[in-house]
Amino acid sequence: MNASSTASASRVPAIEFIGVDKRFPGRNGAPDVLAARDVNLSIAQGEVVSIIGPSGCGKSTLLNMGAGLSRPSAGTVKVGGEVVAGPNMHVAFMLQKDLLMPWRTIAQNVEFGLELRGVKAAERRVISTRLLAQCHLKGFEGHYPNQLSGGMRQRAAMARTLAVDPLVLLMDEPFSALDAQTKMILQQDLARTVKENGKTVLFITHDLAEGVALSDRILVMSERPGTIVEEIVVDIPDRDNPMQRRKHADVGDYVARLMDLLKLDANADVH
Ligand SMILES: Nc1ncnc2c1ncn2[C@@H]1O[C@H](COP(=O)(O)OP(=O)(O)OP(=O)(O)O)[C@@H](O)[C@H]1O
């Protein structure tokens, strides 16, 4: 069965978590760690949903289960209506670190996943050329990662993530290591690219304004064991143009509400 075609035919959610717990065994006799508890979420195709929550609440753990890198201790994760039983080609990951291979050119990095799938060289080149142009890296195809800035490397990582044409992009703080302006430019690229390619995104961030700028919805998690305690629908226009959305008068109200939910105030414990 092909998850992409099945999902588009029936409009089933792109990704779903149903009653998901994740428990890690304790080391050296320590008790088990319950990282996530009874997580339920459903993301429609084409939606961009962010998850925010305190450090250590289980956000990355959820993405790992979405990618099939780790299995739920209870409950089910589905992508395109199919239970995720292991790593699969319907999801792609993008992390804070670009994880580009230094010995490969940017184009060769973008093409890597296609190579693994046996796509012919000429077709791979067409795809990498198109995506690198879309990610504003036209002319840099033959460069090596160490010849590019941090922002450019993350653009290349974005192109690589899109190259395998996943149903769902799982993004774990992908822009958090970038300076504020580069971050805004990459957010703009991501929003446009997601729109153009009709992708579904599950995005983790600690940057509340980034969540508001990019998302259709924001899911707020509790402290560990993390569960979803609030869902906020971002009812501001211009999801595809976060630069414009950031200027909207309501953004501050959303950020303030998220700060309240995360109990971020002058007395918050920053350690
Ligand atoms: N492989 C593992 N073995 C044991 N415990 C783990 C493992 N992976 C994660 N944990 C624990 O599970 C909890 C959730 O971790 P996770 O990385 O998902 O949190 P997070 O919300 O992404 O954190 P942050 O915002 O700081 O990145 C933490 O207490 C962490 O120590």
Automatic annotation (TrEMBL):
Q: Which UniProt keywords apply?
A: ATP-binding, Cell membrane, Membrane, Nucleotide-binding, Transport
Listed CDD domains: ABC_NrtD_SsuB_transporters
ABC transporter domain mapped to chain residues: 15-248
**Molecular function GO terms recorded:** ATP binding
Q: Kindly give the Pfam families that the UniProt entry links to this protein.
A: ABC_tran
State the family named in the UniProt similarity comment for this chain: Belongs to the ABC transporter superfamily.
Under which name does UniProt file this protein? ABC transporter ATP-binding protein
**Organism in which the protein naturally occurs:** Hydrogenophaga electricum
